[in-house]
Amino acid sequence: xxxxxxxxxxxxxxxxxxxxxxxxFPDRFGLHKAEQLADLERLAxxxxxxxxxxxxxxxxxxxxxxxxxxxxxxIVSSFGVGYDHVDAGxxxxxxxxxxxxxxxxxxxxxxxxxxxxxxxxxxxxxxxRHVRTGAWQSQNFPLSTGSLRDRSVGIVxxxxxxxxxxxxxxxxxxxxxxxxxxxxxxxxxxxYPNLIEMAKAVDTxxxxxxxxxxxxxxxxxxxxxxxxxxxxVVNVARGSVIDEPALITALQTGTIQxxxxxxxxxxxxxxxxxxALPNVVLLPHIGSASVVTRNAMDQLVVDNLxxxxxxxxxxxxxxxxxxxxx
Length: 326
Ligand code: 8YV
Known about the structure:
Elements: E1 9-14, H1 19-22, E2 29-34, H2 37-41, H3 45-48, E3 51-56, H4 64-67, E4 75-78, H5 88-93, E5 97-99, H6 106-121, H7 124-132, E6 153-156, H8 160-171, E7 176-179, E8 190-192, H9 195-201, E9 204-207, H10 221-227, E10 232-235, H11 244-253, E11 258-261, H12 272-275, E12 280-282, H13 291-309
Parallel strand pairs: 1-2, 1-3, 3-4, 4-5, 6-7, 6-9, 7-8, 9-10, 10-11, 11-12
Helix pairs in contact: 6-8, 9-10
Bound molecules: 2-keto-D-gluconic acid.
2-keto-D-gluconic acid binds at residues 58-59, 79-82, 105, 285, 287-288.
């Protein structure tokens, strides 16, 4: 049980500076900051010894070695729904609760997935260029070979965001199936336990599965070959889920048709070969990046910490570190 006395609670804000998180804590919290891994080295040992809560404000590594710097750590409140950058196994073994920011970004990320899919199929970026360059004055933009109208989509991952993407596709009258390790409760779409089988059965993959070791390079050359020459891949999950060199080769050789990518293997570095391809739409990891949604995520980071240090259960603990009674 944490100490809920009036004594100051020392928190570390680790990651990019977030004004709303900064401003979110009442006076009884003492805030310390480290923007990057290297900044942790400069944190005075007496402060590190007092830290009881860490807010991970972006995709900075929160490995076991990082968490081990804080012997009094009780809770890690991580920004974002994905937490593959936080060592949940270490946290669990050491009785540290980890929270993330689900739900508040579900519809936003699903919007981006659908927008990216349509932009890729209907070639919005090239069409915009056609207007801006004045090319339209001499010729019409060519008909797009891609369309949602003649496609069926396999969603890879059927969590909250996968289901929100499914709802949008249904509303657009697009057939949906999905792949995940286990069938998702209450989901009526056909479930494929085998990804290759699903890739053979559809022509479009929308990837929204957690990152981390269990899903690394899940979308590999074999899956792309199974998807075939009409294949389109949209990734709004983590770059690690796709074998990026295999995807580049598949796009270069016509093994698949096109891709829409919001995430990459080594952000913000995007391979030159990928940037040179005409059949890709590339976004700088903006799935949840609107002011309204990011504010809600910031607030949830704060609320999880304040709830905990008020002696309440955290609002959104991850499955690996459940909190039963408090
Ligand atoms: C953020 C995300 O872009 O929620 C996630 O898992 O990837 C995004 O919402 C990410 O946390 C970077 O700050």
